[in-house]
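Hello Y.,

Per our agreement to keep a running log of every chain we model this quarter, I'm adding this entry. I've kept the format consistent with earlier entries: sequence first, then predicted structure.
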Amino acid sequence: MTIIAGAKTGTITIVEIIDDTLNESDETIIITLSNPKNATLGSNVVHTVTITDDDSAPIIDFNLTSSSGDEASSSKSIIVDLSSASGQDVTVDYTVTGSATGSGTDFTLANGTLTISAGETSGTIAIDNIVDDSLDEENETIIVTLSSPSNATLGNDNVHTYTINDNDDAPTIDFNVTNSSGVESVSSAGLTVDLSGASSKNITVDYVVTGSAIGSGTDYTLANGTLTINAGETSGTITIDNIVDDSLYEPNETIIVTLSNPSNATLGSENVHTYTITDNDSKPVVAFDVKSSNGAESVSSKTITVGLSSVSGKNVTVDYEVSGTATGSGTDHNLSNGTLTINAGSTSGIITIDIVDDSLDEIDETIILTLSNPSEATLGSNIIHTYTINDNEEAPGIGF
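Predicted structure for the entry above:
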């Protein structure tokens, strides 16, 4: 700078101050005098000119408010934008919520602070280590919320929801085994229903009960119903209660349980289970009620009772053979060898002898019945019954 002779002042001109659009700190221009000629330096040799910034702070918010990806995607970047570049570093805090679980269970991202360096217009919040598990589950969310910006103002789009789309199939549900059995003295039985894998959803499946056994407390207690397997579990149990240990000799009985209509699962091939109640009762004993009986030949028919020691749930048969002094085929009676059937639920049966009342004076005659070859029963001690036909004719007169 030159101050001309005779003058007391001179001017230093700052040619142009640029009015930019950059939000920045106030800036200074420092002018320092030195090396005077034909003068000496005074005390005020430094002058500071401050350029005061007149630009507003940029707005900071998310580029988008939502996005999604398959859980097979290992990471996801969420972009945070500035409305314009800034001459200052911009920071913004963020918090992480949502239905997905952090800390490496479903993903890795904790609460933190994002810094966008001066001159940049965006930054990235990275969701790392998204876990591709094998669990069938609902789609899960990671919600990131911005707050407390510095050198910026918070925009409207300050919440971003990232959805992790589940890529796992629903598990298969069916019985662990298709058949099982137990003696009727076992009071209850559990039928295991398995999942092919754990699920994060509650799973239900309906079941209907059929079979030869009778429910409602007669042989057992189990009605049609719905089984629930809670989230995280891999199996459930259908319980047959109050299996009745009766004293009835009977066929083995079945309880057939059929699965249908699953929710949050698909039905497997092993969807029918047959539980067999094994009878533990001995066969009844079959025998004549009494060893002998008699009647006049004027009695046209006679019934001989064959009894069981206890009622049976099966038809009982027993063969009988006819012998004795009386003549069959309609001469003295008409009973021939045969088979007696005692129906299930009955305790006895009868063998009927039709008697012929002839006019012949004769000795008393016998019909002997012998039991053999029983089915669904064992022979008792009274297997022979002797029926005596008492003659009812007077001896004939004799003379010339």
